[in-house]
Amino acid sequence: MCKAPVIMEPERVMKSILVIDESQLFRDYLKRKLEDYGFEVSVGVSGLDAISKLRSEMPDLLITDYHLTRKSVLEVLAEKQAHPNTADIPVIMASTKIDRDALVQVARYNVKKFLTKPIRVDALLEAVSETLNVPVSIDTTPCIVEAHVNDEIVFIEVAQGLNREKVDLLRYKIRELLDLYTIRKPRILVIMTSIEVSTADTDKLSALVTTVVEGSGAHPKNVKFLTNSDYVKEFFMGRSDLSAIEVTSNLERAMDGLLNVRSDGPILERNTDSMEGVLSTSAPKKQKGEAINLRFQQEQGAVELADLGDTVEIIIVDDDIIIQELIKTAFSDTKFQIKAFNNGREFVDAAPDLNPDLVFLDLMMPEMNGFEVLQELRRQEIKLPIIVLSALSKRETVAQALKQGVSSYMIKPLKPQVLRKKASEVLRANF
Fold first, then answer.
1. What is the CATH number of the domain that holds 231?
2. Between the CA of residue 349 and those of 69, 346, 364, what are the distances in Å?
């Protein structure tokens, strides 16, 4: 009996990529990420490395920075073009700044895509996929990750959801921040108060914790997770290796643990014991730009609000007419409906008949202050997305406001672009 011939499927040929960039952090990230997707990756630092490896390895794709040392990128491209074995290798180029003339010069050298640094990882992976005609599956779970430093504490805020790509990227962002701010003994606060986590997110949550601990090199006792999620708390309880990491829903407790201080004093004391570390960013100690971007290309910028439509209703509760006008001006290019109340009492009386998408609430007002407004809304079981605006930056004040379930807390004086950014994050989380 003749056996049926075995039909072998053609084996997928592994595509090779050469990455040339002076930033070791960026090279390390791209190498690991691209290898995760099945590419063979080699790296180099300079234009001289690029020429040498192009000829010896003949990769399927060159990813290079525009600003190279030892040989300029134009010299690299010209030599690549002149060699018959390398002439057809496509190029993806990146740069922080480049003028129109430079773009015209490189365009004739088979440059398929030009990306602006800091590169958005989804844009890069999409460019690689299109150039090499190889499918690349990207995790598109909605997720916002912000990371900044103040008072040598790394603040990491995770909102909306957990995304595999952004968790991977966070490892390198932490390393970049530690280097820029020359932090030797890092302290980390991970804020997850506006995110729902379930058993379906276990693998991503585990990756996030590993990324934070290993990426920072911080002692577990100097890592705090701020969360309202019972599941996140249960996750840590089930891991003996994470027992030294404190998980709490109390911002004051988390901050005290990181600062190793106890604070007393009146709750409404102004401008003392500042919490601006959670809300703002210190200037880095090293004079160089950041290379790691935690946002995706398909995410509209925080200031792009037009796509939310013209049915958005925003309410301002503030006795300061200047603040009212500032907020109205910040959204003047949208069709949002904006209504202002001059004090807390007026707003509370009208609240049962209102259904705003966002409320800006001042804390210090006559007749009824912001805390009293929050308490009354809770008593009436009225739940609204609220951003608190206040000159009160004392740590306990911020903690007390967050305990009332507000979405965010902003320190006065306010800047229009920051108002738009925070509003965008809160609004998108509810649309």
1. 3.30.750.24
2. 66, 5, 18
User: Quick one: CA dihedral 406, 409, 414, 419, positive or negative?
Assistant: negative
CB 208 within 8 A of CB 162: yes
Q: Does residue 310 sit in the same domain as residue 382?
A: yes
Q: What span, in angstroms and rounded, lies between the C-alpha atoms of 160 and 364?
A: 30
Domain end residue (candidates: 132, 153, 182): 132
Q: Measured on CA atoms in the order 237, 242, 248, 253, is the torsion positive or negative?
A: positive
Tokens 């820029």 map to which residue? 180
How many domains is the chain partitioned into structurally? 3
The parent domain of residue 341 ranges over 306-429
Q: 248-263: string of b/e by CB count within 10 Å (b at 16+)?
A: ebebbebbbbbeeeee
Those residues with Cβ within 8 angstroms of residue 234's Cβ, 6 or more apart along the chain or in another chain: none
- Whether residue 420 is predicted with pLDDT greater than 90 in this model: the reply is no
The token pair at 273 is 């014991």
Q: How far apart are CA 350 and CA 372, in angstroms?
A: 15
Task: Check whether residue 315 and residue 375 sit in a common domain.
Answer: yes
Walk across the sheet containing 358-362 and list its strands: 337-341, 313-317, 358-362, 386-390, 408-411
Which tens digits make up the pLDDT trace of 142-190? 888 888 887 788 989 898 899 999 999 999 999 999 998 899 999 999 9
Residue 272 lies in a domain: yes
Residue reference for tokens 């997110």: 201
